[in-house]
Every structure is written in C-alpha cells, then in structure tokens.
Write a structure and sequence with these properties.
Elements: E1 4-12, E2 15-24, E3 30-34, E4 44-45, E5 50-52, E6 54-59, H1 80-93, H2 96-112, E7 115-122, H3 138-150, E8 153-160, H4 182-198, E9 202-203, E10 206-207, H5 215-228, E11 234-237, H6 242-252, H7 256-263, E12 270-273, H8 280-288, E13 292-295, H9 297-302, H10 310-315, E14 319-322, H11 332-347, H12 361-377, E15 392-395, H13 407-416, E16 424-429, E17 432-436, E18 439-440, H14 443-458
Parallel strand pairs: 1-4, 6-7, 7-8, 8-9, 8-10, 11-12, 12-13, 13-14
Antiparallel strand pairs: 1-2, 2-3, 5-15, 15-16, 16-17, 17-18
The chain binds N-carbamimidoyl-L-glutamic acid and zinc ion (ZN).
C-alpha cells in the first residue's frame, strides 16, 4: 500500500513549496512533510500540484436530489421561502434507500470536485407520517454508510428542530419529519456515537436555527452535547434571510447573531452558517468569538440571500470556510470563485481574497477555507502538515487550462478559468486514493443509483 507521494509543487499551510515528499502512517495521518526531497524508492509521483483537500462544512445531502429542479417561475415572486416549500415536498417522500443512494453519488461527486470531507447537517429524522423509525437513527446511519462506502471524511451533525418560528410557533406539516424533543436528540447522539467512532467520523450537533430552536432547548442541548464531548462541533443557520433578522428583532429586540452571542456559549466549536446579515458590531463580535463563518456562496446566490461582507469579517480576523449546502453546485473551486466574485460585485474591486502574504487569490482563499473548514469539521484536516489527515487533491497539470503554468497559476486557472470542467487528477483521503484520473471508483454505480432514486422520488 502506498505510504508516500512526491509532488513537484505542494501547497503547505505557509504557501507553495517545491519537491515535497508527503509520508503518512497506517492510520492515514501525515507523518512527514518534507520540502526539497529527492525522488526515492516507493513514493508515487503526483501528476500535478498537490493542494489540501477542502472540508465541505455544510451539506444537506438529500437536497442533491432536486438540485436544478426549482429554476422556473412558480409564483409571482419566488423566494427562499417558496423554494423551501418545494424542498419540503421533496423531503416528504424520501426513504432511507433514497437517502443512501443520493448521498453515495453526492459524496463521490464531492471527492471528484475537491472536497475530501463533509459536515452533514442532517434534519430529516422520521418516517413520512412523522413517527420515529423503529431505529431512530435510521436516516443518519444511511448517510454514515454512504460516507464509508465512498471514503469521504465525515462529521455528522444531527439537527434539533422544534418550532416553525421565533417565540415557539408550532411546527407545520412540512416539518413533521424533523421534530424531536431535546431529550430524544441527546438519546440519538448517544446511539450514534459508537458508529461514528468506529469509522473515524466526528459527531456534533446542529440546532437548526433560532427560528426552529427555542432558548431553553438550545441551552439544554448544547449543555448535553458538552457533557458527552466537550469539544464537539456545533453548527447553526443564523442570519440567512432579512425576514429572519426582522422576525428575530420583533421577537427579542435583537438581531440573530447578536442574540446568539449574548445567550449561547459561542466559541471555536461553533460554525455560524449563513451569517449573511450582520451589522458592524456583529461582524466584530462574531469574529472575536472564534466561531467559523460557514459560507455557502453558490447556494446563497441561488436562494437570493444577500452578500456576506468578507473583507469586514477577515479584517476582524474571523475564521471561515465553504460548504455546498443545497448542492446546486458541488465544486470546491466554484464556491471560492463565487465568493470572490460576490465581493467584486459589491465592492467594485478585484482580488479581494488576496492577502499581503498570499497575493494569489485562489491560493489565499484555499488555505483559509481549509483551516476554517477543518475547525468546523472538528477533525484534523487542516492541510498538509504533520499530524493532519493525509487528505489532498492533485491538480491535473495536463489539463488544457493548466498546462505550462506555474503552480500558483495552475490553482488560479483551476478556480477562475477551468470553464467548469474539473482540473483534478486525484483525491486522497486518509492516505487512500479515492479518485484517480478524475473519477471515483464508484462513479458509474453511484450515478445509476442516484438517477434511479431521483426518478422514483419525482414520479407522479
Ligand atoms: C435547510 N437551507 O435547512 O435546508 C435550509 C432551509 C430553513 C438553507 N438555509 C430551511 N439554505 O432554513 O428553514
Ligand atoms: Zn443549510
């Protein structure tokens, strides 16, 4: 079994390095990262620049099943909320076999598109009529099986969901598969822990949003999780839509991020997903809390959310990463492109993501998003350094968009000028090559399973 790879160029946490020998141990952890190495015995040779695998910090796997199917006018004015109604309709029909088939294809797609691990924000828990499955963990286990089969790193975040709006509004019909008490959530976590531990997955908690989780439940669930595992990750949707901000103000007199920072122990365990609508004080306090901003630029564009002020967040030293969320797009490079372009639109400037230390936008964004993504995943996937997982992606130096360029320019071309074709040759997770020559070994089978599941779900 391969235990090392030699790369003419590799993107280390501090920047690009030449002739890097990556060596990992049996557990799939990097044991040595040595620049200036010679080609030695036994080391495979990378076919292009090696970059760290991107952790995908936000996924609702089942939503891949209807990606692209809401892009038509359904009402006078379509919005996030009308999209959500369609999403609920799709979720209502989903069974465990569909969940597993969709996730298997999705996770293979992710590996082919630069993501080597994923945080799954999993909120469909119950049967279609709202009753718990005989095994309450059925749908979470379907996702765990998909991740294992495909070989993607995994952080499972079962979702607590109790109300349809601020102030304890009763849940609606479309939400009945999501609803559970705080105690039953803690029971679910207990029952999932052994399966997660057995496959090296991390288990955390996702209070869905302040709309869906009342203050007491939030406090008790976070405390219960902390008792189980004091460093477990906590993800929450926080301020995606302006209506959500208005409703929160009407309920509490505070904005969502402001409320959360005042009422919950927000720290580096937390990922604030869609912290899109913040005022200056929230940018400052949110960044200072140590929480990761979970940015999902293509979904946020697709759903008409608004634009996160990246320069402001980074100016305060805020951590951040990217996720593919609704999977309208599944491509790590494209999330970075969309993030950078959203900032250019808003600020009428260029190269917003570059820094003094890393003038190449794609390089700077990749390094920061890998750091923040690893923090959100609560797994050692923070890049090409000793002690981190051997999770990396090899760019295809023969791809037309990349040929003959320097390594930093190859990554720039991959992000900004690969014309939506993948310039990825290989993806390795925990030292195992899961994608080679651009394809996952399960590509064809998983695609077939996905199409069959989708057809069934869309029938009549
Ligand atoms: C979700 N998705 O949980 O899938 C949400 C929609 C909601 C995004 N926020 C449902 N992108 O927020 O109520
Ligand atoms: Zn989400």
């Amino acid at each position: 079994m391969t235990r090392s790879l030699l790369a003419a160029d590799a993107l280390l946490p501090g920047g690009w390095a030449k002739d890097v020998l990556l060596t990992w141990n049996d557990a799939g952890e990097l044991a040595q990262v040595q620049a200036g190495a010679q080609a030695g015995q036994g080391a495979a040779v990378a076919r292009g620049p090696v970059i760290p695998g991107m952790p995908n910090l936000h996924s609702h796997a089942f939503q891949r099943g209807f990606a692209g199917l809401t892009e038509h006018r359904a009402g006078e004015q379509d919005s996030f909320w009308s999209w959500r109604t369609l999403m609920y309709r799709f979720a209502a029909r989903l069974g465990p076999e569909h969940m597993e088939a969709i996730a298997t294809w999705l996770y293979a797609e992710m590996l082919e598109a630069g993501y080597t691990s994923v945080c799954e924000f999993q909120y469909v828990h119950h049967q279609a009529d709202g009753r718990a499955y005989a095994d309450d963990a059925t749908l979470s286990l379907a996702l765990l099986r998909a991740a294992t089969k495909v070989g993607i790193g995994f952080t499972l975040l079962p979702v607590l969901y109790q109300t349809s709006g601020f102030g304890g509004l009763a849940p609606n019909e479309g939400q009945r598969r999501f609803i559970r008490t705080t105690d039953s959530m803690l029971g679910l976590l207990e029952s999932l822990k052994p399966a997660c531990d057995a496959q090296g997955a991390r288990l955390g908690l996702a209070p869905h949003s302040l709309r869906a989780v009342p203050p007491d439940a939030l406090r008790n669930a976070v405390a219960g999780l902390g008792a189980m595992d004091p460093s477990a990750p906590i993800h929450i949707h926080i301020a995606e839509q302006t209506k959500e901000v208005d409703d929160c103000l009407a309920w509490s007199g505070q904005r969502p991020v402001e409320w959360l920072l005042d009422h919950a122990p927000v720290d580096a365990r937390w990922c604030l997903v869609h912290a899109t609508h913040m005022n200056d004080a929230e940018y400052q306090r949110g960044a200072a809390s140590g929480a990761v901003a979970g940015l999902c630029p293509t979904t946020e564009a697709n759903l008409g959310d608004g634009i996160f002020d990246f320069a402001k967040w980074r100016g305060h030293g805020g951590a951040w990463g990217v996720g593919s969320d609704s999977h309208a797009t599944v491509n790590a490079a494209e999330e970075l492109l969309m993030l950078e372009y959203s900032q250019r639109f808003a600020s009428r400037q260029r190269n917003v993501g570059a820094t003094a230390a890393q003038p190449h936008v794609a390089t700077a964004l990749t390094l920061a998003a890998v750091q923040g993504g690893a923090q959100a995943a609560a797994r050692p996937v923070a890049g090409l350094a000793v002690g981190q997982r051997a999770d990396f992606v090899v760019l295809d130096a023969q791809h037309l968009a990349l040929q003959g360029l320097s390594a930093p320019d190859m990554l720039s071309a991959h992000v900004f000028a690969s014309h939506r074709t993948s310039a990825i040759d290989a993806a390795w997770v925990g030292g195992r090559e899961r994608v080679s020559a651009g394809r996952h070994a399960l590509h064809d089978d998983a695609a077939q399973g996905f199409v069959a599941a989708r057809s069934q779900l869309l029938k009549d």
